[in-house]
């Protein structure tokens, strides 16, 4: 239930006054809707240019990256049928596998050395 009658009377008076006041004016549109829409659309490229100009002045510039394409040669798959490899081929396979093992060991050693050097540099920086 509405208890504030004074408020209702006051708003009704305001509405009545506005209706009387607005009736005295003859509303003539200065521009048609189409002119307003065309004018708004004409300003869109100008606004886009301004925003791009501001982005260009204050934006972060990135470096261009070049993509390198590496062509891989197809892998040849050799299937051995029920034949026995010659002894010479077996010896060369053993030598190659031994060399690969040695290379892997050296690579692990180098990796460990590099790791130690990085730790030492970090310790020196912390001590200084």
Output the radius of gyration.
Answer: 43 Å
**Spatial shape:** elongated
User: Largest sheet, described in full?
Assistant: none
Amino-to-carboxy terminus distance: 79 Å
- Mean pLDDT figure: 77
In percent terms, what proportion of residues is strand?
Answer: under 5%
- Derived from helix and strand composition plus strand pairing, the structural class reads mainly alpha
Question: What is the tally of beta strands?
Answer: 0
Helix content: 55-70%
Topology pattern, helix = H, strand = E: HHH
Q: What is the overall number of helices?
A: 3
Instruction: List low-pLDDT spans.
Output: none
Brief synopsis:
With 128 residues, the chain is mainly alpha-helical.
Please characterize this protein's 3D structure.
The protein is mainly α and 128 residues long. The chain has a domain of 40 residues. The protein is 67% helix and 0% strand. It has three helices and no strands. The model has no long low-confidence stretch (mean pLDDT 77).
What's the SSE blueprint?
Blueprint: H1 5-23, H2 33-58, H3 87-127
Key terms for this structure?
128 residues, mainly alpha, 3 helices, 67% helix
